[in-house]
Write a structure and sequence with these properties.
The complex is a heterodimer. Chain A is mostly beta strands. Chain A has no helices and eleven strands. Chain A has strands at residues 5-7, 10-13, 19-24, 31-38, 42-50, 53-57, 64-68, 74-78, 87-94, 103-104, 108-112. In chain A, the strands form two sheets. In chain A, strands 2, 4, 5, 6, 9, 10 and 11 form a seven-stranded mixed beta sheet that branches. Chain A starts with a strand and ends with a strand. The model of chain A has no long low-confidence stretch (mean pLDDT 94). Helices cover 0% and strands 43% of the residues of chain B. The mean pLDDT of chain B is 91. The N and C termini of chain B lie far apart (38 Å). Classes of the chains: A mainly beta, B mainly beta. The interface between A and B is medium-sized, with 31 and 24 residues.
Chain lengths: 113, 112
């Protein structure tokens, strides 16, 4: 158990819909990272937040957004969903900005029908 | 970004040492080598990391060559539960913050 929690574990929705994925980092960790893992793309970095502020963006679509709240939990919002958004979504946390040891949650499996 | 090259797959007999190689010939002097593994769609699990010196923890050992162009992750006594995809990662620099670039990894199969 990494100490990172993610909800929900599974999510099934329809194209065009919007969903919110939630991540609670390890106690005391200030950084949260989001990654997407699809069959054809592998594990890809989406976005990084540190202590409530966005620090870096990776291959994140404009339809996706994220935020980190004062209690340090983070949410990833996916809108106008397409079939190709079906994937595993992982969040990871680390102690501080630049601390490279990231600890991953169990992931949310999203299926868009 | 320093890229890594790993064999796509390897086999290892249970109880034997598993030696997983990684080439990172373009690594910069201040970049660390990290190893993670992913067991069947679970969240990636941190194993070990190092800069120049060899490192050992309760899970594995990491051997980095003197020129730092390659490294080897050693699982000293592989068990069936070590069957996973193993990723060798070199720290991505500031363009992507501190994201991890996972690549394709090595699929390790531990057999009875």
């Amino acid at each position: 158990d990494s100490g990172v929690t993610q909800t929900p574990k599974h999510l099934i929705t329809a194209t065009g819909q919007r969903v919110t994925l939630r991540c609670s980092p390890r106690s005391g960790d200030l950084s949260v990272y989001w990654y997407q893992q699809s069959l054809d793309q592998g594990l890809q970095f989406l976005i990084h937040y540190y202590n409530g502020e966005e620090r870096a963006k990776g291959n994140i679509l404009e339809r996706f957004s994220a935020q980190q709240f004062p209690d340090l939990h983070s949410e990833l919002n996916l809108s106008s969903l397409e079939l190709g958004d079906s994937a595993l979504y992982f969040c990871a946390s680390s102690a501080w900005d630049g601390e490279e040891t990231q600890y991953f949650g169990p992931g949310t499996r999203l299926l868009v029908l | 970004d320093a890229k890594t090259t790993q064999p796509p797959s390897m086999d290892c007999a249970e109880g034997r040492a598993a030696n997983l190689p990684c080439n990172h010939s373009t690594i910069s002097g201040n970049e660390y080598v990290y190893w993670y593994r992913q067991i069947h769609s679970q969240g990636p699990q941190y194993i070990i990391h190092g800069l120049k010196n060899n490192e050992t923890n309760e899970m594995a050992s990491l051997i980095i060559t003197e020129d730092r162009k390659s490294s080897t992750l050693i699982l000293p006594h592989a068990t069936l539960r070590d069957t996973a995809v193993y990723y060798c990662i070199v720290r991505v620099d500031s363009n992507s913050g501190y994201a991890l670039n996972f690549g394709k990894g090595t699929s390790l199969l531990v057999t009875p």
